[in-house]
Structures are given as structure tokens and as C-alpha cells.
């Protein structure tokens, strides 16, 4: 029979070896687990970066710059009691109602240097949806207004611009949309900073005449306050891109020339980063103004 002290020493040694082995194996497991997680994190980062770059290339105009609004003015909208900020370089003039729909729409002309180059429109939707108050050809019928409002509500509820919603919106032109629906260069989701008003921004490229009279449109819808607020601004005179492409026109433009110039412009808009466009700051101003909408 072994002395008791030999038994005790043996037990202690075995216990130490067991603990050491467990510690070593556990350390190796933790290290391998951490190494594997690090590899997974690196892979996810690369996937996310690739996805981000892909989204950026598909819609290169969606990168809005940060705009300083500290010196901006504030407009209070009379129909809906909403407020929004606008650049101090803008002079707003409330236009007189000439269509008999003063309960539906309020319009402010945007002036700069004595020239009108855009408008801010406020729509009281419960009144607007009833239909136009005159035979004005650039106003939608009551039935079209109902259908368009349904698409706008779908956009609001979705909180994003899906292909189906875009297709529904693209069935209509004028009234917080661009003139010619077939010539919208891009349409991107837009919302106010407080997240309570949602809509879209887009570039229109066509009118009734030859040329590229580009306009930037942005609108948001707020169901709680029965409102759609729109800003649109003519950008042709600020665009060196348009001036360059317009050199393709002859003294008597043809349909073929016009079609090519528009195609070239669309291609340019979809391949050029927003910050590189000569009129990017004006788009940023409009987006930022819309985003300040508050009730």
C-alpha cells in the first residue's frame, strides 16, 4: 500500500495536468474562434463595400452633400401650416391665384436677380384630390389625382422607392412631377429630417421645344397634415453639361439631333458622380430645403 503522501502528490499532479490541458485546449479554441470571426467580419466588410459601390454606380446622383443652413430663411406655408428653410439667396414671391383653386394650391415663385427660376408649391391634398378648378391643360383630372395620390401613399408606406411604385408614379406628369414622364433622368427617394414627410426627387429633361431645359423636382407627402410640398428649379442656365451637349444642335434642330442630345445627357447623368455635376449644389439646396419641412 502506497504512503498517503504519494497518493496526494499524484492526485495534485494529475489535476494540474488536467487543468493545464483544459486551459491550453480552451485557449486554442477561443483563438481559432476569434480568427474565424475576424475572417467573417473582413468578408462581410468587403461584401458591404462592394454592394455600396454597386448601388452608387447604379444611382450616382444619390450622394447629397451637407449644406449649411444656419443663414437660411424660413417660410411658413399658409394652407398646411408647415415651415421649411430656404437659401438666403432666394427671394420668394407669393403668386396670385389665377385658376380658382386657392384652397388647393399655394405657389411661391423663386426669384434671383429679378429672374424667376423655380417655384415652391404647397398642396392641400384633401382639396387638390377633388380635381382641377379650371380647364387648365397642365392640371390633372380628378380621376388621375386619385390614382397618383394612391401611388404617393404607397411610397410613403413603403419608405422606399420600389420599381412598382416608380412605374406607378411614371404614369403621370406635371403637378409635383416633371413635364414629360418619359424623359425623367433619375428618381430617388427623399424624406424630411424628422422622417414624417416622404417623397422623391428627379430630373426632367424635356419640354415642348427642342433642347434640354432641365428642371430638378423634389416633393414630399405628409398624410398627418394633408400636404404635399414641392420645389422645382430650372437648371439649364447653370449647367455646363447642357451647354456642351447643346453644341450638337444645328441652326435648325432636327428630331434626330434632339433625340441624340437627350440620350447623351441621360448617359452623362447616370455615369457622373453627383458632386462632379456643375449644378450639384442647386440640387443639394433643393433637397436640403425639402428635408427641413416641419409641422
Structure, described:
Strands 3-4-5-9-8-7-6 form a seven-stranded antiparallel beta sheet, with helices on both faces. It has two domains: 1-30; 73-291. It has 295 residues and is α+β, with helices and mostly antiparallel strands. It has helices at 4-58, 125-128, 142-158, 163-169, 240-245, 255-271, 280-291, and strands at 73-76, 83-86, 91-94, 105-112, 115-124, 184-191, 198-204, 215-222, 227-234.
Q: Which descriptor suits the 3D outline? A: extended
End-to-end distance: 93 Å
Structural class by helix and strand composition = alpha+beta
Number of helices: 7
Mean pLDDT: 82
* Biggest β-sheet strands, sense, barrel: 7 strands, antiparallel
Helix content: 40-55%
User: Strand order across the biggest sheet?
Assistant: 3-4-5-9-8-7-6
**Strand residues, percent:** 15-25%
Write down how many β-strands occur, each being a DSSP E stretch of 2 or more residues: 9
- Order of helical and strand elements: HEEEEEHHHEEEEHHH
In angstroms, what is the radius of gyration? 30 Å
The figure for the number of domains is: 2
**Low-confidence sequence ranges:** 45-60
